[in-house]
UniProtKB/TrEMBL annotation, chain A:
This is Cytochrome c oxidase subunit 1. Its main location: membrane. NCBIfam families: CtaD_CoxA. The chain crosses the membrane at residues 35-56, 76-95, 116-136, 156-184, 196-223, 243-268, 280-303, 315-336, 348-373, 385-409, 430-448, 468-490. Keywords: Cell membrane, Copper, Electron transport, Heme, Iron, Membrane, Metal-binding, Respiratory chain, Translocase, Transmembrane, Transmembrane helix, Transport. It comes from Luteibacter jiangsuensis.
Amino acid sequence: MAHAATHDHHDHHGAPKGFFQRWVMSTNHKDIGTLYLIFSLTMFFIGGAFAMVIRAELFKPGMQLVQPYFFNEMTTMHALVMIFGAIMPSFVGLANWMIPLMVGAPDMALPRMNNLSFWIMPFAFILLLSTLFMPGGGPAGGWTMYPPLSLQGESIAYTIFAVHLMGISSIMGAINIIATILNMRAPGMDLLKMPVFVWSWLITAFLLIAVMPVLAGAVTMLLTDKYFHTNFFNAAGGGDPVLFQHIFWFFGHPEVYIMILPAFGIISEIIPTFARKPIFGYRAMVFAIASIAFLSFIVWAHHMFAVGLPMGAEIFFMYATMLIAVPTGVKVFNWVSTMWGGSMTFETPMLFSIAFVILFTIGGFSGLMLALAPADFQYHDTYFVVAHFHYVLVTGAAFSIMAAAYYWIPKWSGNMYSETWGKIHFWSSVISVNVLFFPQHFLGLAGMPRRIPDYNVAFANFNMISSIGGFWFGASQLIFLGVVIHCVFFSKKKAADRSWEGAKGLEWTVPSPAPFHTFDVPPVIHDDELAHGNTEH
Amino acid sequence: MQDITDIEMEARRKRARRTALIAGGFAVAVFLLSIVQMLKV
């Protein structure tokens, strides 16, 4: 890529000068990406604060700090904020920043819609969080919003409107990503030369536009049941509450993959860089992501084995769920094969990526256990489920986002972060997260139900260990905040354009920090210099 | 240098808008279908 076209001179006069024009009216993919990342980090700490309340209450058996209803509000809000406010927007932020740079596009295809997608989010979350201060309190029926429980609160209308806004934002973001990848790639950047991260987002975006409207439909029917006397889910009026569960999980299971497929893409960028080898089995990685996305549509009822499905349905959903282990296994083996024989170094992004591979696999295995319909009757609604999905979403999705932040922050800020503090953050996080979540497997197997503020004294020790891990993990993330602030504003160590020795791909051909405008003239693509471009060998 | 003319770039943006319209139409259709199929009419 000898002549990657960048317009350095734009760096000095490209960005609007005023704060309002620069950030509120922005149509620049990098600025909007930054806004998404700041927003998601803020939500990560708000959702984390809710988690601290939960773990503090569960530190000892008996009621300690909060009222039961408030505890239920915390479990509900923690999930909604972390899923829709932290994990998803951070991936959209990464997509905004990196996809145009990775495919050689000057910006996202629809920049004004990009601005709207972002600016809907703060209002959605102000609305959602404001319900905590309303008479009667916020939503407390769990993030799944099952009726009739969720319809008991008066704030459900606000929650539903907030969910609608989040959905609209996500769908517009997904449309923009699809339009950008399909239409704005530099000449020569064929689909099967795109970085795996771009592929993972293309597939994720299709999932988003297919299932977010289903969630919107489900919550709209909740709203009409509550306020317009319809009976979609009201058994007394001829409706069926289990129907809501089917519709919700038809959205909910692909949603789980929406939160993990971009993580797969990130890890597939980082491991080759620090193993100094191309990704093993590029095409297999792409097809595995597509397979997982397809399977995500036919496994939803494994969340509802305990509602009393017909035997044939239980067997179908059990086997369909177990099938997902095949493409997921392909990915895990390919990451390990990429590392095998590589000239590896262990900078912070690589440490988080290796931790991802190991700990996500633990979450995957407990998922396989939960997929077994007969066994699920024992595990259902216990802390085993909580342990499982936190291994997948914290050591999976959240760790991949942290890995991505460490990996690309030199490109974003032009500065290198403190490797020492990055490693302190990593080791503190990786130890504490296991102290936090591993004991929850044992609690679940012993029968402790989830979403309760009090529990049998038999569960006391593991809960105390888990809470200590929780406080430790929460405190560790303040180190991350410190590292990011130091890197962006105070670091004296300037980043090279190619910030990592083994990094390949278009994004590393532009200066660090990336200029306000890049690729106004499309870059020349040389296959051998692309991260995964030379896929014929 | 594989240059793209302004005309070509405008054509790409036009194609992108068409892609967005198709994707958006699909999303709206899924939303409406998810409700309509539940109506017992």
